[in-house]
Amino acid sequence: MALKTLIFNYTGGVQSFTAPLNGRYSLEAYGASGGNSARSTSQRGGKGGYASGDIKLLAGQTIYIYVGGQGGDTNAADSTSDAGGYNGGGSLLSGQSLYGAPGGGATDFRTSSGAWDTLTGLQSRVLVAGGGGGANSRDDGYGYGSGGDGGGLVGTDGTTAGQNSGGMSYGYGYGTGGTQTSAGSYRWYQNGILKSDSINGGFGVGGANTQSGGGGGWYGGAGSGHGGAGGGSSYYGSLLNPTAIAGVNNGNGKAIITYEDYEMFYLLKKDGAYYIPQKAFFDIHNKKFNSVTIEYILNNYTITKPDDLNKPFVMNGKTLYPSDILDFSKCQICAFTQASLDDRELKMIYEPSNISLAKTTIKVKDKFTSLTSNLDHTFIDITSPDKNKLDYFIDYNRDDQDNLRKSCGILNKEILKYDFFLNFKFDATDAKLQTIKLFGRNDKYTKIKDYSIDVYDDFIDKAYIVFHKDYDAVFVNKLSSESAAYTINTLDKF
């Protein structure tokens, strides 16, 4: 076991990470800082915030990373607009780049990809580090100030000279930081009296204003027309071990993923017993491999590549192949990680080969019990890239016409009755079974909400599919007979 750390730097676009194993992953995000105004070194953009937390991911699950860009430093001639940093930094409006600066973008992890500013994408964020607000150095009567830092769960307010000097000739103001429920507001004072207090910015985006742009965040900080802009808020939702700290990062943002990188191990199973087909386990007198126990496996990981299951060894000057000693056609390959062993629960990694799937029938058996009393029957739905390459057969173990083989290509709704066996036949080398979904029928014949599916294995003789909340677990008869040519990497995938 070793800790593996991946760092995602600013690219100006979406990046992704696919979990290699079931497990807990540590996420860290640093928001980008707001822009500085080169007219003054006293007024600076706010620093980006920091947020972290742990998330549980399933093998193959993908999350998307959006790393915030720093708000640009400005001292150029006036322009019509100076864009904020990537991923929500508030823009600078009305050609005031001579004085102010835009806000920095947030850095976030989300479960939906696409353009950074789509509502679906923003709503799918699981961790956000707020960006810093932009600075404003205009000192000719409008008020000036530094940008607020990105959050914390609340972004920091921008500053303004007028707060302490008693006012400026055109008034003074600043942008407040974003919160967990609202964007920041632009507050403008004149002669010490609050004249205006209005929301500036929004969900995921910092406010745009004439003198400084707000920082991006869960909710953006407000831009300002008379001072520094507010920083965006950070967010960690329901993550485990969460942290949010304001004002940590200068420059572009970054994201970090850390996880325990477990090595994969393999062994064989036959008739309920486990075998490691290597020389150390060969009984020379009885010409067979001795079986091993789960307790032994816990401390003796030996085979890390499936091809090595049939690696030859020399005994008394003779080269022996494991497949000549143990009938591989009657064995299953068991794939597991140290993590699953440490938990004393071996979870199978399902990675099928097309050749094997084309020759394989998957059988599901169930004493099927609905947990929702008002559902008279249940329906099965099957998803696949091409259902025409799959057939299914429902066997109720009854001598009637209910037992019919049908093509998944014409499947719409199949009522499940009694106790049943469900078989799938793969009719093409590129056939793929993706999911099995169950629906219930009530008096209005509407489908209930479908829930995610867990597949787990007790590593003895049973595997299960769990349909969350609405149904009991489904027992899966694991494959037990495949020819030796197809035993590598051929477990069922759901």
TrEMBL record:
Tell me, in one coarse class, where this protein mainly resides. membrane
Membrane topology, record value? Single-pass type I membrane protein
**Taking every annotated instance into account, which residue ranges of this chain make up the domain ALK/LTK-like glycine-rich?**
22-259
Keyword annotations? ATP-binding, Cell membrane, Disulfide bond, Glycoprotein, Kinase, Membrane, Nucleotide-binding, Plasmid, Receptor, Signal, Transferase, Transmembrane, Transmembrane helix, Tyrosine-protein kinase
GO CC terms on record?
Answer: plasma membrane
Top-level taxon of origin: Bacteria
User: Where would you find this protein in the cell?
Assistant: Cell membrane
Carries keyword Heme? Answer: no
One of the entry's Gene Ontology molecular-function terms is: ATP binding
InterPro entries xref list: ALK/LTK-like_GRD
The EC number(s) this enzyme carries: 2.7.10.1
Please report the name of this protein according to its UniProt entry.
receptor protein-tyrosine kinase
Species per Swiss-Prot/TrEMBL record: Clostridium saccharoperbutylacetonicum N1-4(HMT)
